[in-house]
Specification:
Distance between the termini: 37 Å
Number of strands: 8
Low-confidence stretches: 212-219
Number of helices: 3
Order of helices and strands: HEEEEEHEEEH
Length: 219
C-alpha cells in the first residue's frame, strides 16, 4: 500500500482561494458585492453578443461529442463595448437522471486593462430553457492579475444562441493568488467551479456515479 503522497506545490494557494471565492459569491447573491471595500471590478446588465461556430459529432442530433467555439462582445447599458471573450465548449455526456446534456466550457476574457479566464460546467438543456449559469473567474493579467470573480449569464428568449444577459464581478485577493501556470489556473477554476456549477455526476438508480463521458459517444 502506498503510504506517502505529495500534494501539488500550489495546493495551499488553491485552498486559500476557496473562502475568498465563497465570500464573493455570497455577496454577489445578496446583491451587494461591494460590501467589502477591497478593489472591485463590477459590470452589471451587460449584453453579450455571441458569434457561435457549432460542430456536430452525429448530425443533426445534439449529443456527446458535439463542440463549439465562440467569440463574444460585452456591451454595457450605455452601448459601450467593455471587453471581449473567446471560448470553447464540448458536450461530454447525457445525464442519466434527466437526459440533460452536460457541457464543459473554457474561456479567455480580454479587457482594455487586463485579462481573465473562466471555466465551468453548463447544463446545456437547462440553459436553452432560460436558466442562469455561473462560472468562476480567475484574473490572469493587468489590473485583474490578482483577482477572482464570478461570471453569470443567461440566454435571451429572442436569440438564445447569440444574445445573452451577463454580469461580471471581480475582487482583489490580498497578496494576489500567485497562479500563473496554465495547469495551475485550470486546477483553480475546476476547484472553484465545483461550488457554482450544476450537479454533473449525480447518483444513478444503482447508487453509483455515472462516468463523465459515455463510452463510444465522443468525437
Amino acid at each position: 500500500m502506498n503510504e506517502r503522497f505529495t500534494l501539488p506545490a500550489h495546493s495551499p494557494a488553491l485552498a486559500a482561494l476557496v473562502p475568498e471565492f465563497l465570500d464573493l459569491a455570497r455577496a454577489a447573491a445578496s446583491g451587494d458585492p461591494a460590501a467589502d471595500e477591497r478593489d472591485l471590478a463590477v459590470w452589471e446588465n451587460l449584453t453579450e453578443h455571441v458569434s457561435l461556430d457549432y460542430r456536430f459529432a452525429n448530425p443533426p442530433v445534439h449529443g456527446p461529442g458535439d463542440w463549439d467555439t465562440y467569440d463574444s462582445r460585452f456591451v454595457d447599458p450605455a452601448g459601450v463595448e467593455i471587453g471581449t471573450l473567446q471560448g470553447t465548449g464540448r458536450i461530454l455526456y447525457e445525464r442519466s437522471s434527466d437526459a440533460h446534456l452536460m457541457m464543459y466550457y473554457r474561456e479567455q476574457l480580454t479587457f482594455p486593462d487586463g485579462t481573465a479566464q473562466t471555466a465551468g460546467w453548463v447544463d446545456g438543456t437547462a440553459i436553452l430553457g432560460g436558466a442562469w449559469q455561473r462560472f468562476p473567474i480567475l484574473g490572469s493579467g493587468g489590473r485583474y492579475g490578482s483577482m477572482i470573480g464570478l461570471r453569470s449569464f443567461q440566454p435571451t428568449p429572442e436569440a438564445p444562441h447569440s444574445l445573452y444577459r451577463t454580469h461580471l464581478v471581480l475582487r482583489e485577493i490580498p497578496g494576489g493568488h500567485g497562479l500563473t501556470d496554465p495547469e495551475e489556473i485550470d486546477a483553480a477554476l475546476s476547484l472553484l467551479g465545483a461550488f457554482v456549477g450544476p450537479s454533473v455526476n449525480p447518483a444513478t438508480g444503482n447508487g453509483r456515479l455515472e462516468p463523465p463521458v459515455r463510452a463510444g459517444r465522443t468525437a
